[in-house]
Design a protein that fits this description.
about 325 residues; five-stranded mixed beta sheet; globular; binds coenzyme A
């Protein structure tokens, strides 16, 4: 049974102006447009300027949400920023966002579940609002992946980009958006996707401490295509809704081949997926809100639509949320 009392009432997004195309990357490392498109589906990605940080991206995404939806955030009582690329270790990005937006009475926390961050953030926001602990929560997924990417490493620099998206989750008993969710973590596989300049081992296994994102792409790929289809079914089995009744699937936009394989294994039509991959690359916690905002802005997502969001990545972590669009 669905007990949610939380409604997603608005969505917005922002990406930095600077575009880095596959042709630009050809001039930087030994790669080519054909390889990148064939293996990942990515054509270009956005790059934050040197002076632009995750909190700046968050603020612009929220300003876009305010402008498009004629909403106020003055009475927001909790800010959750989902990110793995904070401006600082402390203060949190959420606290910086609170100050920059001048929100007077609010809690502010960062949530790090890497590329699954946004769906974890939605799960938490639904819980807080449904429990009556908060009334109006801003959930933001934003990243400056370019700041932790080694642009001499062709195996990672072609994949990642910068951007952010935001939603407002408000108390509403009549029109809740949240139907169910499912979370998972496999920290024992953490060494396959990490970023560190501190610790030199995960679970006793030694790491290369470059300060940049490092991954075993093949292992992450295999894990994602095995884990996500099962997770999607776990989200749905808590409801009376079948996969065939899902109108839109928004998987984390890591890689087109991963999305194709997930759809094939789940027998879900790829035409009903919404992605932010081709134009923005893998923006980690931002890929899902970017695709959601695009789907709403382009009029694809309509009132009554069932939308399955599924984030997966570093941790390794994953989280799925089933929504009904009720605005
Ligand atoms: C990263 C990824 C695209 C690599 O694709 P792949 O098919 O596994 O390719 P491999 O790593 O086996 O490399 C194949 C060859 O391409 C080369 N290569 C790697 N990156 C390259 C690039 N950017 N351009 C050209 N060649 C490249 C490799 O060096 C290798 O060459 P070799 O055969 O001479 O040794 C793929 O593993 C992947 O998508 N993994 C998931 C990554 C991901 O999404 N992570 C984030 C999850 S949140």
């Amino acid at each position: 049974m669905n007990n949610s009392r939380a409604q997603i009432t608005a969505v917005g997004s922002y990406v930095p102006e600077k575009i880095l195309t596959n042709e630009d990357l050809e001039r930087m490392v030994d790669t080519n447009d054909e390889w990148i498109i064939k293996r990942t589906g990515i054509k270009e990605r956005r790059m934050a300027s040197e002076q632009e940080f995750t909190s700046d991206i968050c603020v612009k995404a929220v300003e876009n949400l305010i402008e498009k939806n004629n909403k106020s955030v003055h009475d927001v009582d909790m800010i959750i920023v989902c990110t793995m690329t904070p401006d600082f270790k402390t203060p949190s990005v959420a606290a910086l966002v609170q100050a920059k937006l001048g929100i007077p009475h609010t809690g502010a926390i960062d949530l790090n579940a890497a590329c699954a961050g946004f769906t974890y953030g939605l799960h938490v926001a639904n819980g807080l609002v449904t429990a009556g602990l908060n009334k109006k929560v801003l959930v933001i997924g934003a990243e400056t992946m370019s700041k932790i990417t080694d642009f001499t490493d062709r195996t990672t620099c072609v994949l990642f980009g910068d951007g952010g998206g935001a939603v407002l989750v408000e108390y509403n008993e009549q029109y809740p958006s949240f139907l169910s969710s499912h979370l998972g973590s496999q920290g024992e596989l953490g060494k396959n996707l990490y970023c560190t300049d501190l610790s030199e081992s995960i679970n006793g296994e030694s790491l290369t401490t470059t300060g940049n994102i490092t991954q075993n792409g093949r292992e992450v790929y295999k894990w994602a295509v095995n884990t996500v289809p099962k997770g999607m079914l776990s989200v749905l089995e808590k409801t009376q809704i079948s996969l065939q009744e899902v109108d839109w699937f928004i998987p984390h936009s890591a890689n087109l081949r991963i999305i194709e394989s997930i759809c094939e294994r789940s027998q879900f039509p790829i035409e009903k997926t919404l992605k932010s991959l081709v134009e923005y690359g893998n923006t980690s916690a931002a890929t899902i809100p970017l695709a959601l905002d695009k789907g709403v802005t382009e009029g694809k997502i309509k009132r009554g639509d069932k939308i399955l969001l599924y984030g997966f990545g570093g941790g390794l972590t994953h989280a799925g949320v089933l929504l009904e669009w009720t605005v």
